[in-house]
Design a protein that fits this description.
alpha+beta; 6-stranded mixed β-sheet; 4-stranded antiparallel β-sheet; 5 helices; 12 strands; 28% strand; globular
């Protein structure tokens, strides 16, 4: 008896999955499934969202979006970054298909998402030439910063900065504050 051929997942296949509390994504046909995140993950996403919203109100160069999302660059690509910033014109369309030029993508690690976030999705974001990708590790209290040409991340433990095109000032986040206890 032979083994079944592996399934090559498309974005349409993933969109058809049930709303069962899991996050389903596909990168080059590989299915990524993660369960509901831990409370610490959600706390960090909330703190990042609050800080970035304040910055983008002062520097309206992009629009912040939180997952769930439906970012797709092809038939076999569908991702849901925890947080991401797109150009305002793309956000105004209120259509996932229009949101293609991520200015910043952020993933907050969970035990079940670490491999996909650090490797599979990171390589995809570099292939798509996303200018900034942050991998936020709440357990290590550090942020890995990736740009498209990086072979290794820059590890940030004190603060993380982001200076998007068109902004007069950079976004600066004190990581001691981000990782403070509740």
């Amino acid at each position: 008896m032979g083994m079944a051929a592996p399934v090559y997942y498309t974005a349409e296949m993933v969109r058809a999955f049930p709303a069962d509390g899991n996050r389903y994504e596909t990168v080059h046909g590989e299915l990524l499934v993660t369960p509901a995140p831990r409370p610490w993950h959600q706390e960090l996403v909330s703190r990042l969202h609050f800080a970035l919203m304040g910055y983008l109100r002062k520097e309206p160069v992009g629009h912040l979006v939180a997952s769930p999302a439906d970012i797709s660059w092809g038939e076999d690509l569908l991702v849901q970054p925890d947080l991401f910033v797109v150009p305002i014109e793309q956000a105004r369309a209120l259509d996932w298909a229009a949101m293609r030029d991520l200015m910043l993508a952020i993933e907050v690690l969970s035990p079940t998402s670490a491999r996909a976030d650090r490797f599979t999705k990171r390589r995809l974001y570099q292939e798509r030439w996303i200018p900034w990708y942050w991998v936020v590790d709440g357990d290590l209290r550090a942020v890995e910063v990736w740009t498209p040409s990086d072979e290794r991340p820059s590890f940030k433990r004190k603060h993380v900065d982001w200076w998007p095109a068109g902004a007069e000032t950079p976004f600066q986040l004190d990581l001691t504050d981000l990782f403070r206890p509740i």
